Amino acid sequence: MSAEQARSTQSGPSAGAGRGLSAGGADFRHGDWEAVIGLEIHVQLNTRTKMFCGCEVTFGESPNTHVCPVCLGHPGVLPVTNEKALEYATRIALALNCRIAERTIFHRKNYFYPDLPKAYQISQYDLPLGIGGYLDVELEDGSNLRVGITRVHMEEDAGKLIHAGGASGRIDGADHSLVDFNRGGTPLVEIVSEPDISTPDQARAYVTQLRSLIEQLGVSDVNMEEGSLRCDANVSVRKPGEPFGTKTELKNMNSFRFLHRGLETEIERQIDALESGERIVQETVHFDPATGLVSTLRSKEEAHDYRYFPEPDLTPIELDEAYVERVRAGLPELPAARKQRLIDQYGLPPKDAALLAANKPLGDYFESLAAATGHARSSANWVLGDLSAFLNAAGLEVTQCPVTVEGLAELLGLVSDGSLSGKMAKEVFEVMTATGKSAQAIVAEKGLGQISDTGELEAIVARIVEANPGPAEEFRQGRDRVLGFFVGQVMKETRGQANPQVVNDLLRKHLQTPDG
Ligand SMILES: [Zn+2]
What we know:
Elements: H1 3-6, E1 34-44, H2 83-95, E2 99-100, E3 103-104, E4 107-110, E5 120-123, E6 130-138, E7 144-156, E8 160-164, E9 176-180, E10 187-193, H3 200-217, E11 229-238, E12 248-251, H4 256-275, E13 283-288, E14 293-299, E15 309-310, E16 317-318, H5 321-329, H6 335-346, H7 350-358, H8 360-373, H9 376-394, H10 405-416, H11 422-435, H12 439-446, H13 454-467, H14 469-476, H15 482-493, H16 500-512
Parallel strand pairs: 12-13
Antiparallel strand pairs: 1-10, 1-11, 2-6, 3-16, 4-5, 4-15, 6-7, 7-10, 8-9, 11-12, 13-14
Helix pairs in contact: 3-4, 6-7, 7-8, 8-9, 8-10, 10-11, 13-15, 13-16, 15-16
The structure holds zinc ion.
Residues 50, 53, 55, 67-68, 70-71, 185 line the site of zinc ion (ZN).
């Protein structure tokens, strides 16, 4: 909605309307109620400079070191629209299948807050950049949820308030507040969804996939903890088929976990209130992850409270078709398209394809590996299995992985030519991640390697069959189960390194023809 509402440190009087989350949300219930959820996502663009001035966009630098008369709201200054920000916003709108407005303008949204020195925020109102789009979201069960995108618009961020002296960093109990204007004027894109989402799981899937899409567009760092992607939710509940209930706005959930828990808590609170005959009040609420409680921030503003009017210092923007098509042509392959291509080109299961398409570097690693080995399925299994498990445990991105595509391809080659069993390959992979040595070197050093050499195994098999005439005779009389005994003996002899398929074939041959 606005930078004011996206302010991460803001708080208000606690109305004590909180209600605990029961049993960690495990027994989250809808009963005969359904939730109606619409999400508003603020994305901070990673342009070099701010939305309307030449100040650098920074994070974590000394307070008030990247400011100028324009972003400090001094009288008489003139803002100028950042062309890169406009291009990035257009990219987002196009990737979300929006129609790009032929004419779009900025509005002043008037309100007072100490981190907004102009006492208005430059935003967009009735002529936003993009309208009427959608995002197809893949759900846990593999089904698709199409979430409508109402609008995509541009605006500027506010500064950052730091409330000091209190226990929680919130304004309650603080003895003074500080303001840092470095963030003031940073370009934001707000993405407003239709209320097409009905569970916390769906909301999480939507934000996860939207985040991945925006990351792949290269227009934002999409870091929720640092605030470059922020999420607010409009939530109401109703009996299916009935009109929408009164909604509340849940602010600033700065992680996927808090988003999920906040929604669960608020939906349960509304259901409980309605079932005990209370009324839902339209208000802005805050979910406190520490207590698991929802509390009132303030009553909800209406658009007319902001006295919107067209920003007289900025010219309207008219985007011709050539511009829009140029931006469209510059879009990378988007996750949905890549997922479909991975299915078509490599025959991957949709779930694997979705995972690889959601993470561009991981998808790139997979495609290079598949090209190097010529085996797409086993490459996908390794990338999504052992490799991802290692990366997750080590807290690494695939771009930081100590095992290169070539290194892993060599290991997979040893498996496909029968030199290593799948089990041994896992052990070798572990050593590779720890030492950076090549698969060949580790196999040679440890004397690993699967014995597939028929000549070498044949001598062992012949000796074992000869040494066990009793069981051999039982096998010849039809007791097939005895084969397991012989396989066990060969494995013992070879310390588990014999290729089981070769051993099986050789044993059958020798047991059926004792002289052979
Ligand atoms: Zn500035």
